[in-house]
Amino acid sequence: xxxxxxxxxxxxxxxxxxxxxxxxxxxxxxxxxxxxxxxxxxxxxxxxxxxxxxxxxxxxxxxxxxxxxxxxxxxxxxxxxxxxxxxxxxxxxxxxxxxxxxxxxxxxxxxxxxxxxxxxxxxxxxxxxxxxxxxxxxxxxxxxxxxxxxxxxxxxxxxxxxxxxxxxxxxxxxxxxxxxxxxxxxxxxxxxxxxxxxxxxxxxxxxxxxxxxxxxxxxxxxxxxxxxxxxxxxxxxxxxxxxxxxxxxxxxxxxxxxxxxxxxxxxxxxxxxxxxxxxxxxxxxxxxxxxxxxxxxxxxxxxxxxxxxxxxxxxxxxxxxxxxxxxxxxxxxxxxxxxxxxxxxxxxxxxxxxxxxxxxxxxxxxxxxxxxxxxxxxxxxxxxxxxxxxxxxxxxxxxxxxxxxxxxxxxxxxxxxxxxxxxxxxxxxxxxxxxxxxxxxxxxxxxxxxxxxxxxxxxxxxxxxxx
Length: 467
Ligand SMILES: Cc1cc2nc3c(=O)[nH]c(=O)nc-3n(C[C@H](O)[C@H](O)[C@H](O)COP(=O)(O)OP(=O)(O)OC[C@H]3O[C@@H](n4cnc5c(N)ncnc54)[C@H](O)[C@@H]3O)c2cc1C
Ligand code: FES
Ligand code: FES
Description:
Layout: E1 5-9, E2 12-16, H1 25-32, E3 51-55, E4 61-65, E5 78-80, H2 94-101, H3 111-123, H4 130-137, H5 147-157, E6 177-179, E7 183-185, H6 189-198, E8 203-205, H7 212-215, E9 225-227, H8 232-235, E10 237-239, E11 243-247, H9 252-262, H10 266-271, H11 276-279, H12 284-289, H13 297-303, E12 307-312, E13 315-320, E14 325-327, E15 330-331, E16 338-345, E17 351-358, E18 369-378, E19 381-390, H14 400-406, H15 413-426, H16 437-456
The structure holds flavin-adenine dinucleotide and FE2/S2 (inorganic) cluster (2 copies).
């Protein structure tokens, strides 16, 4: 028998008996609960008008996009909408007061979304640093007010004491569950693998920041999903002196501290992957699972020599990531397998790692070209090199000719010029609306020239925004 979805909504228990688990949280809030403060702008995770906040028992508050979150995903969680911000006496929340006092709203359509992002930011105790505020707001668009007053309001509420997140009132679910006909929510690896074997037609779903668009933008919700986000073996993050290991269903927000400690060059790169709303639910496993040629993580993971642990009822196997992508959106994942985790070596002393994302817009945009490079240089000779590129072929790919042009060669501009020339041997990209083939090749070649400058002249700005 199917289970009912239960979660905490604005401090009260909510039970979903009358809606499909594939309904978006936004549609349910508006159509079934009449909570119309949460708006629909784009219905694809881009504008932030639908922002609500997840409140966790450990005090974390995370902004997410309700338009692409499915109801089944929020089972057991605690959700706060803009209607849940006022005090028990009905007084507006200090974040709302700050927005009003800064004249940070005109037509008001985007305002509830901004208020919820500001609430999560204020509750996180983050500083009034313009970069941090920019990051907190990158997932929210306003068409009429202008961002200056909104930033002013954010500055006022930074670090403001916010009451600790109240304990969820919905019962805590410990076992696996099934919602509706086919929203499977396993809570153990054994249950996940059995479900995967029994339902090869079901879509694996982690954060749904890709799959949720089927329900929102396309209005064709999946018929069956297996939600992997509650399986402890898939959310674990760990490592030892030599490697780090990240569960496929750990969110970007959860994995970020470990990734940045191991590979500091990822700081800007990760900050430009989606927005906070996307990174609070999206996962690296999902990014690999889409097998998109323009996903941001595969180039990085290829350069870092990542390997995947793939699990099924038949057992576990390890596969280097560069053997995973077989063709356009085609992977080596067997129908009964799931990606359990990924693992990559830490940087050895003397190794350097850099990565670049070139996109039409700085924030909230998919790459046109992405490149990542791990190098070991000793006594002026490039002793080791691994690359990963996206946006240049049907799959994310290492650049074999580029690597040959660099391996064992002196670290000089001429070597990198030869590597830049070799890009044409490795890739035959296509023209599309993000960029022509010629543009993509030119960008990749220039990224290699920039890589030389980056290493040769540390501290010298090499990015447009730093000049
Ligand atoms: C507004 C917006 C901005 C975005 N910006 C970026 C960006 O800048 N860069 C970028 O790369 N992407 C971006 N994305 C795409 C998306 O957020 C990422 O691909 C994300 O990593 C997907 O993770 P997820 O957990 O949400 O995947 P889901 O949507 O849950 O799943 C995606 C795919 O992975 C498969 N999958 C999930 N988990 C597993 C598993 N354990 N084993 C096997 N297969 C699995 C699913 O079956 C599905 O095919 C953006 C999306 C939106 C909506
Ligand atoms: S409606 Fe635009 S992000 Fe959800
Ligand atoms: S106030 Fe009108 S869109 Fe922001």
